[in-house]
Predict the 3D structure of the following.
Amino acid sequence: MLAILGWRTGQHLAVTAVGPAVVVHPHPAGIFVVPSSRYVVLPAPVRRRCGFVRGDRVFLAADAAQGILVIHSTSALDTMLAGYHASLLGGENV
């Protein structure tokens, strides 16, 4: 995913909790950096704010044109999909 975004080791990143999701993007004043392991590590306060716990599986969505990575918990993804599927059927969330 980092290769798709063109991020390199040592690049500074901004990490922001937005509701139940995390938005990560390059920022020259970002206090987080892409480590040599090429993983994005979410800071504990951001994980807690978004309800992520150790071992959670997450859904990663990259927008290469905008240079952003959005991280969703699987429970948030379930909620989004339930609403979407209900809208396809013209009804309420099931």
The radius of gyration is 15 Å. Strands lie at 12-18, 21-26, 32-33, 58-63, 68-73. Residues 74 and 80 are 10 Å apart (CA to CA). The mean pLDDT is 87.
